[in-house]
Amino acid sequence: NAGVMQNPRHLVRRRGQEARLRCSPMKGHSHVYWYRQLPEEGLKFMVYLQKENIIDESGMPKERFSAEFPKEGPSILRIQQVVRGDSAAYFCASSPPNPTYEQYFGPGTRLTVT
Amino acid sequence: GNSVTQMEGPVTLSEEAFLTINCTYTATGYPSLFWYVQYPGEGLQLLLKATKADDKGSNKGFEATYRKETTSFHLEKGSVQVSDSAVYFCALTANAGGTSYGKLTFGQGTILTVHP
């Protein structure tokens, strides 16, 4: 059973460009979470999605950031008009539909804004 | 709101030394508690968990006991190895009404370095 997959692993964008980060959850998992890890800090929750629904986006910046988890295909975290402060590691996690309280993390996407 | 506080690092130990990393939390209701480990350049791996008071989570020689009276979930290992060098994160998820809300709140992480 493949784990959570994220791509790309490394992404370099110039200021003002768009960044698209993809996450494929583990097989059978219908819940997806995105977290951001800024340098020298812990992980901060961004958004929690189920298929075609955003359940909680309380950790998302109000502007430029959006997330989706379509019926088919991976979950996408989109950052428009990136700025240097967006440079971070972005981790996706998934969990099964039953409440096991466990989340399984992907390897992360390291975004660098130049 | 919910919060997790970990002991400040970094922690440097010699091989076979005893390890304790302190973790305390603030949460409403009855959270589930976790320790995650992050090796260099990788994502987080679940190390152990406890879902109710007095539960002990254990894995790979690591242990942590859910102490509701002291709101703590300290991580311990009797004899560390060089391969245990990593960043350790304490985390909680608050489960309202018995359903898995899911959102994890993390501590700031503790860097552990073990020397031969």
What does this protein look like?
The complex is a heterodimer of chains A (114) and B (116). Chain A is an all-beta fold and 114 residues long. Chain A has strands at residues 5-7, 10-13, 19-24, 31-37, 43-50, 53-56, 65-68, 75-79, 88-95, 104-105, 109-113. In chain A, strands 2, 4, 5, 6, 9, 10 and 11 form a seven-stranded mixed β-sheet that branches. A four-stranded antiparallel β-sheet of chain A has the order 1-3-8-7, with no helix packed on it. Chain A is globular and about 40 Å long. The model of chain A has no long low-confidence stretch (mean pLDDT 92). With 116 residues, chain B is mainly beta. In chain B, 0% of the residues lie in helices and 49% in strands. Chain B contains no helices and twelve strands. Chain B has strands at residues 3-6, 11-14, 19-21, 23-26, 32-38, 44-50, 56-59, 62-65, 75-77, 86-93, 104-106, 110-115. In chain B, strands 2, 5, 6, 10, 11 and 12 form a six-stranded mixed β-sheet that branches. Classes of the chains: A mainly beta (114), B mainly beta (116). Chain A binds chain B through residues 4, 6, 31, 33, 35, 41-45, 48, 55-56, 59, 91, 93, 95, 98-108, and chain B through 32, 34, 36, 42-46, 49, 51, 89, 93, 95, 98-109.
Short description:
The complex is a heterodimer of chains A (114) and B (116). Chain A contains no helices and 11 strands.
Please describe the structure with a list of short key phrases separated by commas or semicolons:
A: 114 residues, mainly beta, 7-stranded mixed beta sheet, globular, B: 116 residues, 4-stranded antiparallel beta sheet, 12 strands
Give me the secondary-structure topology.
The complex is a heterodimer of chains A (114) and B (116).
Chain A: E1 5-7, E2 10-13, E3 19-24, E4 31-37, E5 43-50, E6 53-56, E7 65-68, E8 75-79, E9 88-95, E10 104-105, E11 109-113
Parallel strand pairs in A: 2-11
Antiparallel strand pairs in A: 1-3, 3-8, 4-5, 4-9, 5-6, 7-8, 9-10, 9-11
Chain B: E1 3-6, E2 11-14, E3 19-21, E4 23-26, E5 32-38, E6 44-50, E7 56-59, E8 62-65, E9 75-77, E10 86-93, E11 104-106, E12 110-115
Parallel strand pairs in B: 2-12
Antiparallel strand pairs in B: 1-4, 3-9, 5-6, 5-10, 7-8, 8-9, 10-11, 10-12
